[in-house]
Amino acid sequence: MLEQLLIFTRGGLILWELGNALKGSPIDALIRSCLLEERSADAAFHYDAPAGCAAYTLKWAFDNDLGLVFVAVYQRILHLLYVDDLLAAARREFSRVYEPKRTSYDDFDETFRQLQKEAEARAEEMRRFKQAGRAPAAPGKKQVPGAASRGSGKQRSSGGGGSGKDESDGYPGKGRRSENGSSNGHENEIKPNSRAQNVVVHGKENGAPRVDAFDVSKLQKLRSKGAKKTDTGGGGCKAAKAEPKKIAKKNRVWDDSPSESRLDFTDPVADRGEGPEVVVADQGESMMDKEEIVSSDSEGEEDEEVGNEKPGTKKKGWFSSMLQSISGNAVLEKSDLRPALKALKDRLMTKNVAEEIAEKLCESVATSLEGKKLGSFTRVSSTVQTAMEEALLRILTPKRSIDILRDVHAAKEQGRPYVVVFVGVNGVGKSTNLAKVAYWLLQHKINVMLAACDTFRSGAVEQLRTHARRLQIPIFEKGYEKDPAIVANEAIQEAKRNNSDVVLVDTAGRMQDNEPLMRALSKLINLNNPDLVLFVGEALVGNDAVDQLTKFNQKLADLSMVPNARLIDGILLTKFDTIDDKVGAALSMVYVSGAPVMFVGCGQSYTDLKKLNIKSIVKTLLK
Amino acid sequence: MEKWIHQIEEWIHQQPIEQLYVAFAVLVFTFVFFGLFRILRRSKSNTIVLVGLSGSGKTVLFYQLRDGSPHLGTVTSMEPNDGTFVLHSELEKKGKLNPVHLIDVPGHSRLRPKLDEFLPHAAGVIFVVDSLDFLPNCRAAAEYLYDVLTKAIIVKRRIPILILCNKADKVTAHSKEFIRKQLEKEIDKLRTSRSAISTADITSDYTLGVPGEAFSFSHCQNKVTVADASGLTGEISQVEQFIRELVRP
């Protein structure tokens, strides 16, 4: 049964509600982490009340014309088929009753109960019909992941994308569309018998590394793992986390060559006293501090768009659509939006935005525009363009303050050093950008210390040592073949002793699929609890950015022993000068992780570090 | 093109001179009239903007001012609430009442840029602070307040700001004096950290207060006052007073 159904305006006022009080604040969580994050095209949203007292699933529908949102909340263990149906029906009925200034709609109670009964009846019929049709194929569907909670009975293109990924996970790779109905039918059948089974199915769903990566709800769920881990996450296909015994770290051998006995080629004290390196006195202001001159070229409407739109809308006739755009009475339908959205999506993809992200964004914009009345003298394409621009601005605007200097001061007051850990895959520029950040901090009179926790790559410690010498800052190193987590721990203690304000920790690059390395990283982060976990990603990466960030976040959450795992707090975008206007990687990364871009590396010298200029990125993306 | 100009000139020369004078005078008078009208109207803007962090109670306050009750409750706003109305408590008064244009801007950080659209027309700003849950959000609130106080429009036009400590009906709510002191301390720290950075980081255009002295709201050029209220129970008399001072000079 539905726990609650709410109708509220986009401005925040609740117009009508029916149901019991909810634990926690699921609606606020829905708005903050889903609707405002441009994930409104998702099928459903899962919410765990704090202290684990309740788990809800939320579904929603928009009425974009009147600016209303309809949200249905029910317990996660139930699989109610009729919710989407009910939401659509409620939307129809309510839009008839709605008046702008009216704030109480008690008479809607009756209408709603009626609708609910009808919807339930329809769902019952459908279920019986499907059961009869698919009974022979029923057994063997138990292994299907709990698709029910994700869009029961809905045919969505995102479902198709997800099923592709499921195939790679080794599940019976059937098209999701046909599965939905049957799996629901089946699960409803087994519902009275075994609730536990449903829970296990959910466990599988939670455990399977979901790479349709927009489940920010899952991200938050990962944050508040706690008790959930034991019942739902436990029975998953996660690899055994606990190693039975601690094996000493062995050299990584890539092929069958005999392993080297000694890998540490650093000469001991001998080359410490050398001084041919030029001490970097002052290379000038870091670009972080320079005002970026944004050329304000005109943002005129491109008329090529009209060309794009014409072939798609031929069926409506040019004259009538022109008339409608002038009179402004056209109600936007999905079919109208599709050509404009497709053009926008292609444009985004040529700008190197990951394909899935562009798809999700376009769907989210479509959901927010459907049913809206066109203003007069506006074309469909310009409305879509404005909506997409707003959406992009919203995504790229940071959720929290990115004022690092303020955080450093706050940590200084508390008497502890501010620890930043740089993580990322191989070769993205962690060490180089670490030096740039150190340079910038030095320019603001902050004491920096470097910690060389990349104990794997040859020359990594020397590299940092050179940087430290040029910048004249202390460096904490323990050579190679040591456990990075312990090195970092000792570095932080050393920093406390010599009054350094910031500790910059360099780690080895690692691929997101490499389980033991990710475990080591997770151990480093959880042992030392840094203030900022900075993911370093290069702007040249394409669709892989999505995969990298999701897997990093996931592994960080899964492999941590504490309930509130630390996830990626910020992004450092590197090699920005090598892309001219293909700036889409920034958007992909921010969308997937929800973390803001704190720095942008745009060159290979110390001063090439700047802030992300959101307006210029949005302009470039939509040019 | 030139033929037309020639023809027009001939036609003008043909008209009797008085008509030309009258036409010219009418034109000049219209322009002067519109100019005066716009200048006069600008100084009488009646827009009040409600800003504050997400969850501080702006939407509740909006509906309390408009209808006298927050109805069934509110959720996080995704869009601004905009309304021009006579304050609910003044409906009983007789005589011509000036409607107030009230805008409630969402507090969610992703929607911050919307504030810049509404500030140019503001006659006053009400900065709503959650006095119940104040300490965990103190830094964020201070940063937002700092941003508002250093916006060019606020400084140039000396727009008065009312810092409203909302949810004052709860037992554990902090007093407005405490909140004022905390905000002043935080803004003082922000001042030093923000002014240590050069131009690019200062998204605001002005620095606050007197350098060398601890910051206090009396250093601001525009009038900053502190008051408390409770949106849910309806004790919003100080808010209404602030609004009345601004809208009906």
TrEMBL record, chain A:
One of its GO terms (molecular function) is signal recognition particle binding. Residues 119-315 are annotated as: Disordered. Keywords: Endoplasmic reticulum, GTP-binding, Membrane, Nucleotide-binding, Receptor. Pfam families: SRP-alpha_N (PF04086), SRP54 (PF00448), SRP54_N (PF02881). Its main location: endoplasmic reticulum. It comes from the Eukaryota. One of its GO terms (cellular component) is endoplasmic reticulum membrane. CDD domains: SR_alpha_SRX, SRalpha_C. The keyword GTP-binding applies. One of its GO terms (biological process) is SRP-dependent cotranslational protein targeting to membrane. It is a peripheral membrane protein. Residues 146-157 have a biased composition (Low complexity). Transmembrane segments: none annotated. Signal peptide: none annotated. Residues 119-128, 202-215, 240-275 have a biased composition (Basic and acidic residues). Residues 596-609 form the SRP54-type proteins GTP-binding domain. It is found in: Endoplasmic reticulum membrane. SUPFAM superfamilies: Domain of the SRP/SRP receptor G-proteins, P-loop containing nucleoside triphosphate hydrolases, SNARE-like. Belongs to the GTP-binding SRP family. PANTHER family: SIGNAL RECOGNITION PARTICLE RECEPTOR SUBUNIT ALPHA. This is SRP54-type proteins GTP-binding domain-containing protein.
TrEMBL record, chain B:
The keyword Metal-binding does not apply. CDD domains: SR_beta (cd04105). It is found in: Endoplasmic reticulum membrane. GO terms for cellular component: endoplasmic reticulum membrane. The chain crosses the membrane at residues 20-40. Keywords: Endoplasmic reticulum, GTP-binding, Membrane, Nucleotide-binding, Receptor, Transmembrane, Transmembrane helix. SMART domains: ARF (SM00177). Pfam families: SRPRB (PF09439). It comes from the Eukaryota. It is a single-pass membrane protein. InterPro entries: P-loop_NTPase (IPR027417), SRP_receptor_beta_su (IPR019009). GO terms for molecular function: GTP binding. Belongs to the SRP receptor beta subunit family. This is Signal recognition particle receptor subunit beta. The lineage of its organism: Eukaryota, Viridiplantae, Streptophyta, Embryophyta, Tracheophyta.
